[in-house]
């Protein structure tokens, strides 16, 4: 006799990409919030001094630093909610690669390896996209389909 538990009601194929999205979303959301709490300190106290010895112009580094936290917060919200899922994951991947590029310039190889784990997670979430049902996009699409079927 098979006893059904709550966990048997959840399809692992649909939950796996959602768990990845939620983990990445939390990473981006709270990383961005942390930077926004002291934006000037992040840019002027960390980024500009760190990249001073690289070939990157200071103005470009500062512009990136001021924009990054807003991008991170936006990506975090989109990934957690599952809105614009594919676009959010692609932008997350590009953002992560840009962060890795900076760490490569700083010769922070351990940080680069960590970032590439997140890039791999992003790629897996993209690849499993057809199974990701835990999204607000999915809810909207599902309602549209149900209305069309009812008509």
Gist?
This protein has 6 helices and no strands.
Could you describe the 3D structure shown?
About 75% of the residues lie in helices and about 0% in strands. It contains 6 helices and no strands. The protein is mainly alpha-helical and about 150 residues long. The protein has helices at about 10-35, 40-50, 60-80, 85-105, 110-125, 135-150. It starts with 11 loop residues before the first helix and ends with a helix. It has one domain (about 15-150). α3 runs antiparallel to α4 and α4 packs antiparallel against α5. Mean pLDDT is about 90; it is low at about 1-5 and about 140-150.
List the helices and strands and how they pair.
Blueprint: H1 12-36, H2 39-51, H3 58-81, H4 85-105, H5 109-127, H6 136-150
Helix pairs in contact: 1-3, 1-5, 2-3, 3-4, 4-5
The Rg value, from CA coordinates, equals: 19 Å
Overall mean pLDDT? 88
The number of distinct β-strands equals 0
Elements, N to C (H/E): HHHHHH
Characterize the biggest β-sheet.
none
What percent strand? under 5%
Attribute tags:
151 residues, mainly alpha, 0% strand, disordered C terminus
